[in-house]
Design a protein that fits this description.
With 153 residues, this protein is mostly helical. It is built from 6 helices and no strands. 72% of the residues lie in helices and 0% in strands. The relative contact order is 0.10.
Amino acid sequence: MDKLEIDRPGGFRAFLLGAARNIARRHEVRRRPNNPLPDEVLADDTGPAEAFDRAWARALLREAAAAQQTSAEGAGPAAVRRIQLLRLRFHEGLPIRDIARLWGEDAAKLHREYATARDEFRTALRVVIAFHHPGATVEDRDRLAVELLALVR
């Protein structure tokens, strides 16, 4: 931790990425395989930086989802139901019209609830980003939110 510079751009994330990259390089040098992989195995072109960025994005999105869940539990049943709506839409891949049919709701009303749920998630994500990047401007947080969401698609 002697080389950790708190004020350096990228903060702890950049330090952690550098440490992980150095360890991976040392490990890879020791582990060179004698036999290459068979031709049938598809290559994964994801480099360590891209893999790290995706894992970091997923961690921040999980943190935002947990914050949204906590907030929803304090806000009441309608907010908790919006969390369920997001889960059905994103984790189960169900279209809003199918969820509306499943719940016996009007699809137009559910679309409005879905928009509210997404706004609530964005707000939670901005709070998480602000925690991890305390000096970031509102514009920076919004840009980072878009980048994080793009990384996990």
